[in-house]
Amino acid sequence: MIPLSERSDPIIPTAELRALETAGVQSPRTVWQQLLRSPTFLVGAFILLFWIVCAIFGNSIAPDDPLAQQLLSVNAHPSGAHLFGTDQLGRDVLSRVIVGAHDILIIAVSATLLGTVLGTVLGLVMGYFGGAVDAIVGRLVETLLALPLIIVSVLFILALGPSVPTLVIVIGFVFAPLIARTVRAAVLGERELDYVAAARLRGDSSLHIMFVEILPNVLSPILVEFTVRIGYAIFTVATLSFLGLGPPPPTPDWGADISANYDVISLYWWETLFPALAIASLVIAVNLIADSVESVLAQ
Amino acid sequence: MATYFLKRLGLSLITLWLLSLVVFYAGQVLPGNPGRFILGPLAAQSAVLALDHQLGVDRPLWVQYWSWISHFVQGNMGISYEYQTAVRPFIASAVEQSLKLAAVAFVIVVPLGIVGGVVAALKVGRPLDRIISISGLSGSTLPEFVSGIVLVAIFSVFFHLLPSTATSPPGASFVTQLDHLLLPAIPLVLVLFGYISRMARAGTIEALDSDYARTATLKGLPRSIVIFRHVLRNSLLPTITVIATQLGYLIGGLVVVETLFNYQGIGRLVYNAVTAKDFPMLEAGVLTIGVVYVLATLLADVAYSFLNPRIRLGGAE
Q1: A contacts of B16 (beta carbons < 8 Å)
Q2: What is the pTM of this model?
């Protein structure tokens, strides 16, 4: 595409200019059609859908009560009675795996949404205004990135006390600067385009230009970032609950169940292996989706 | 070049200073009173106040910060609340342990990631490229304890091939130590492989598309020479940077891997310090991690600019 600044006709209405400059952007319907044709997307969506159904209807699908302690069948091998065996307290592992999908999905998705909204606002402001705002926020982001995310999250969660809302807020805030970097880079590319200059000449406020003019044109990278980040959010939630900072027991939780039974893995491997495989399948499903979204939007 | 280096050094120092503020502040925000913590819930209030005074935690914050940071810079990291002895030996031995584990992971992942990325770039868009990309992405978002458990289940529980703890018996030979570190290193390798191969892939695609690669091909050079002599040299530059920045992640990953495999490294040390509310240990541990990370990125940037004439000759922005 020819850069519009090199074209000779200066007076074109903003809407048309934008349509010209963003000719590469596809309509939601074509994006959707392309996704439905991609096998990786379909496989990922199928697995994710399975876990979403478990998260919503878990208690009705689960063969047993995930909290019921059957003390006569403690550490039972996987069998017809308990497909995934039972844990050290005699609870059905399959039921705990099914019901455990709920918290991790809720926390991961809400935290990513929060982080994306905060990061988008921050990125728009940094990219659009540049200068001192950009420099100061950039340095703070750099500092935050100098610490491993897990350690930052552990510090904040311990300070605020572990709970579901705390996890959402902490992960959301930790993700925000990372998402802001992506949005900022996309905004820098848009800022110099003619439709922004035209809007400025027309006397539109900065707020209007950022959110009404620029935002719709940087939605693709934001969407890609969002899907990729959900994978990392699941990673973070699972890790934090493995470290004992997730939803409090006896709530069925994959990470917490793993750390509770890990010391007996050499005798009763099913108590840790099945929740671990559940996390793995969820993460891989989200990545298959993220990868397809990225490749469709990048065309 | 000198100005670029100085500017970069200055930015690193500012980052470290901000980091020390954050770490110090986090140490204050964590609930709990040190004197009460050490003496237990039954101790008299007067004894708690006396100990708080002795520890210096009743002074104004900025005085505490100054005394902490000025001692830290001189190598005095304070006294652990939990063990009542100097923090420094704990940090030193933990860093050494973690470095061993990290070294094993890096020795495996760097060549593997580069080869994977270059192969993916040469087959761009084909099934092999997609497989490498997706497995890399999945590996990098698979929590270390998940891959760790699958590995332990397979290699330790089912087939008894490798030990499931990372700590080898005291005085163990190099091979035995390596044997113990191999399984814990693999989860780290899985995570890092995604990042490194993605960078190597992007760099190689860009270099393959460049004018000099096209010229070399049109000149009639065999494809292998074009790749080895012209493409790789340029495509691996950004990979160097990403390898260094992954150190920060690596230490976070160490928290989990060291907990899972019962290994006394810096990640485990920081995590224990957090749960035990051992502020001096925590602050020293986290700041040490920050210093290692900032130094590594600084070194990577300097190495990158030495290797890349475009940056060396100006254009440092």
Answers
A1: 146
A2: 0.78
